[in-house]
């Protein structure tokens, strides 16, 4: 399900005539030899099979649960409505023109196409995307770590409060900390669940500073 207008525009920009069957064939060769699922797995997006379909977190919007379905020849996001074939996906994911996406797929999957060679501009865009992905994966990992830590701490505070039997026990440092911090910890948990990315990053930094002071 190619986006013919986008392809035509891309070819015109790069000095190609869309009526040139040789150029048009390159798009068909790539789509016939590289499945959308293969490309998605190759570029590290970790598809998950649910029922008869594969799903991924949509890379084109802030997706919390996998909302992009992978069909035989097309993807469709039920969150942001992004839709297209393997060339469209690579084009959008790496910020390339459709023709550049064909060039990248040809190079990455070792499919020789006459007149197509990798260029420095594409490699720059790919490296930039890889850096963004690395930062995002690091943020997700840290966010999950902090969330798990706060949930366990919240459970511990609840147990400490429930264990208090006499007024004298209220002077125990752990009880004082539980009384002072549990509401804050619960607030942090709520932000990590439903807050914006900016708010979550702020909470992660706050928790890290608080943990450092406790040592």
Topology diagram in text:
Elements: H1 4-13, H2 21-33, H3 36-42, E1 48-50, E2 53-56, E3 68-70, E4 75-77, E5 83-84, H4 86-93, H5 98-108, H6 120-163, H7 173-194, H8 197-214
Antiparallel strand pairs: 1-2, 2-3, 3-4, 4-5
Helix pairs in contact: 4-5, 6-7, 6-8
List keywords for this structure.
62% helix, 215 residues, 5 strands, elongated, alpha+beta, 7% strand, five-stranded antiparallel sheet
Short characterization:
With 215 residues, the protein is α+β, with helices and mostly antiparallel strands.
Note down, in words, how this protein is organized.
With 215 residues, this protein is an alpha+beta fold. It has helices at residues 4-13, 21-33, 36-42, 86-93, 98-108, 120-163, 173-194, 197-214; strands at 48-50, 53-56, 68-70, 75-77, 83-84. A five-stranded antiparallel beta sheet has the order 1-2-3-4-5. α6 (120-163) runs antiparallel to α7 (173-194) and α6 (120-163) crosses α8 (197-214). It is elongated, with a radius of gyration of 25 Å.
């Amino acid at each position: 399900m190619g986006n013919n207008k986008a392809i035509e525009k891309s070819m015109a920009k790069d000095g190609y005539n869309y009526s040139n069957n040789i150029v048009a064939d390159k798009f068909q060769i790539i789509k016939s030899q590289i499945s959308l699922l293969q490309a998605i797995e190759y570029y590290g997006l970790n598809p998950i099979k649910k029922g008869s379909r594969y799903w991924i977190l949509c890379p084109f919007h802030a997706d919390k649960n996998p909302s992009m379905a992978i069909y035989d020849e097309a993807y469709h996001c039920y969150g942001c409505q992004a839709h297209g074939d393997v060339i469209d996906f690579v084009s959008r994911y790496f910020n390339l023109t459709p023709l550049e996406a064909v060039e990248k797929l040809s190079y990455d999957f070792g499919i020789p196409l006459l007149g197509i060679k990798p260029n420095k501009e594409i490699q720059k865009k790919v490296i930039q995307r890889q850096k963004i992905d690395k930062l995002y994966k690091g943020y997700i990992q840290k966010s999950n770590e902090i969330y798990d830590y706060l949930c366990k701490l919240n459970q511990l505070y609840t147990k400490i409060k429930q264990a208090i039997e006499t007024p004298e026990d209220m002077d125990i440092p752990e009880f004082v900390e539980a009384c002072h911090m549990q509401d804050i910890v619960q607030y942090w948990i709520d932000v990590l669940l439903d807050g914006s990315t900016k708010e979550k990053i702020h909470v992660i930094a706050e928790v890290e500073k608080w943990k450092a002071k406790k040592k």
